[in-house]
Amino acid sequence: MTSASQSVRTQREVRHPEKTAFLSLSKALGRVAVYVVLIFLGVTWIFPLYWMASSALKDDPQVYTVPPVLIPNPAHWNNFADAWNRFDFNRAAFNSVFLYSLPVTLFTLISSMIVAYGFAKIRWRGRDALFWVCIATMMLPWQVTMVPLFIIFKNLGWINTYWPFVVPSLFGNAYFIFLLRQFFLTIPEELSDAARIDGASEMGILWRVILPLSKPAIAVVLLFRFLWAWNDYLGPLIYINSEAMQPLALAIYRMRTLALSMGNTAMAYPHLMAVSTLIALPIILMFIFAQRTFIEGISTTGLKG
Amino acid sequence: MTAIVTGWRNMSKTERRNQILGLLFVSPWLIGFLLFALFPLIASFYYSLTNYDFIREPRFIGLANYQRLFTVDPDFWIVMYNTLYYVGIGVPLGVAVAFLIANLLNSDIKGRTLFRSVIYIPSIVPAVCTAMVWLFILNVQYGVINGFLKTLGMATIPFLSSPDLAKPSLIMIYVWAQGTAVVIFLAALQDVPRSLYDAALVDGANLWQRFWNVTVPMCTPVILFNFIMGIITAFQDFTLPFVLTGGGPMKSTEFYVVNLYRNAFVQFSIGKASAMAWILFLIILFFSVVLFRTSARWVYYGGEK
Questions:
Q1: What's the rounded Cα separation, in Å, for the pair A102 and A303?
Q2: Domain housing B35
Q3: Cβ neighbours of residue B202 under 8 Å, at least 6 residues apart?
Q4: Domain check: are A143 and A39 in the same one?
């Protein structure tokens, strides 16, 4: 097929040499145009993040000078530390990492793996029907259940704690159950059957046979669940109202108020940009070091950032 | 359920064991589904039929909340208009831009990975951080865009402080953060068989004709997917409008979930908020069903169906 079409093209090129020259010129021009457009788009797309990081290094006069200062000079690297210490961001970082993102990520992975195993590797009646219910729950907007859940968790005394995020993560997440199930299905049945004949329990098969073969899928779950927890704003806004318990996403909001009231004084904008940069940095680094996992996770299941 | 019970007697020992194990493995999800999805969904519907403020007992008032929202509520139609404006322009624009960028990235270029990263990273950086950056960039007095306009002696643009421009500004930021769709499109484009393009070349199709007659039909399932996901997620956008504009100026960016949050957790109008949550649920359900139904007419599934 390919070779046939190539030979047809060659014949045409032989017959019309002047047309071929024109074609390759327009092709080259087309490629230059593609690069020009892509570089323009790339610069536009990265500019806001560049502006965030570069403004973080400026002092007050540099921030509001007209024409705008594109490269900070002098660069004030101590802005990062100053901004960080302006509020108790150490505490907020501790809350974000150890009370929210890490436990939720770990528990979601474990519970979703167990459930996915039950949907993929054990044959039982009603399995496919329940799996469809599981998929259908992905369509349920969580704003619908937001208010009743708040009432339940409030009655349990969980306001200003991270239990409203940690406890539900023990019960699996439909997206990741789906993703892991699809992955488990690609692992040959013979492997689990062989382990069964050797007397392994189902838990043992999941742990010793399936888990070592599922590292790519597990990486996707870990990355995305961490990302969602780190970026979550509405959840903490509802459940956390003491400043000491706030995660980073909420703590930074206090700096916004400062920036809007102080304007071009008191280092309001450079500090706001410095803290924004520091909160965005772990996610950007995570992407750079695990780019393949991110891209695979998105292109196979359409997971949102 | 009855099928499971009556089938029990006819099962072999292994089948019974598998039935119990299967249910046991999916039980975390099943319990979680009942506790954190189904029960709150029903409770939310019940609250939508009551007058409730977290303090006094809910009082049953029938469909009055819905009736008031549709007829006398001063904000509901404003909020609905804002949201439909944002979704109706933002989602098609976002899908189109993402598809065009993906096509550019799919052409024969060097540095594809770098360009893809640059386009994708804005969609995973915490929305709170990007909101802070745009708050700064679009600021009338200190923002960099207006800084350049001032340099050129042009009038400044009140991106976020004018009710006419606030929504278009948010749509611009929405389009900027569509990296996930670009990655999904790029994966789909790389799956289009080269032989189709070769055949089109033999037939003398130009670039434009190849795009419309090969690329677009081959990618319709993915375009549909991104379109549905776009509508569903854009309808629920919260962090960006809440942090950036707080619903203002003059309620011009008071989007559905922002208003829902305010009704529930600021005004404590639980009945009204629950009615809004159910309307949102039905809207999202409606869009999903309509798009899936009509898709059969124009989606190309590679001859599978």
A1: 19
A2: 2-48
A3: A5, A8, A9
A4: no
pLDDT of residue B300: 56
Q: Residues of B numbered 128-157 whose beta carbons fall under 8 angstroms of chain A's beta carbons: which are they?
A: 128-130, 132-137, 141-142, 144, 147-148, 150-151
First-last CA distance in chain B: 32
Q: How many residues does chain B have?
A: 305
* Distance separating alpha carbons of residues B305 and B299, to the nearest angstrom: 10
Higher model confidence: residue A60 or residue A2?
A60
- Block means of pLDDT (10 residues each) for chain B, length 305 residues? 64 87 95 95 95 88 93 93 96 96 89 92 94 92 90 91 94 95 91 89 87 90 86 91 89 94 94 95 83 62 45
Return the closest-CA partner of residue A57 out of A69, A68, A72: A72
Indicate whether A251 and A124 sit together in one domain.
yes
* Alpha helix (H) residue ranges in chain B: 2-7, 13-33, 39-48, 64-71, 76-106, 112-120, 127-137, 144-151, 163-176, 179-190, 194-202, 207-210, 216-235, 239-244, 256-265, 270-298
Cβ atoms < 10 Å from Cβ of A23: 13
3-state secondary structure of A198: coil
Size of interface A-B (CB pairs under 8 A): 293
Beta bridge pairs of residue B50: B60
Report the gap between the CA of B184 and the closest CA in chain A (Å).
5
* End residue of a domain, out of A28, A62, A79: A79
Say what the ipTM of the complex is: 0.89
Residue of chain A minimizing CA distance to B187: A299
Q: B59 forms bridges with which residues in the sheet?
A: B51
Considering its fold, how many domains does chain B have in total? Answer: 2
CA distance A283 to A285: 5
A52 interaction partners in chain B (CB closer than 8 Å):
129, 132-133, 136
**Alpha carbon distance B53, A196 (integer Å):** 56
Residues B23 and B77 placed together within one structural domain of the fold: no
What is the CATH classification number for the domain harbouring B121? 1.10.3720.10
With both helix axes pointing from N to C terminus, report the angle between A102-120 and A174-185 in degrees, rounded to the nearest 10: 50
Residue B53 inside a domain? The answer is no
Distance (Å, whole) CA B186 – CA A98: 36
Nearest C-alpha of chain A: how many angstroms from B231? 12
- Find the CATH number of the domain harbouring A166: 1.10.3720.10
The domain tally of chain A equals: 2
**B157 lies in the same domain as B197:** yes
> Residue A175's domain spans which residues?
85-301
Chain B interface includes A129 (CB < 8 A): no
Of A63, A79, A95, the residue at which a domain comes to its end is: A79
Give the nearest partner residue to B26 out of A31, A37, A130, using CB atoms.
A130
pLDDT tens for residues A49-60?
999 999 999 888
One domain, residues A224 and A125: yes
Of B270, B253, B298, whose CA–CA distance to B79 is shortest?
Answer: B253
Compute the distance between CA of residue B87 and CA of residue B242 in angstroms, rounded to an integer: 16
Q: Is A199 on the interface with B (CB under 8 A)?
A: no
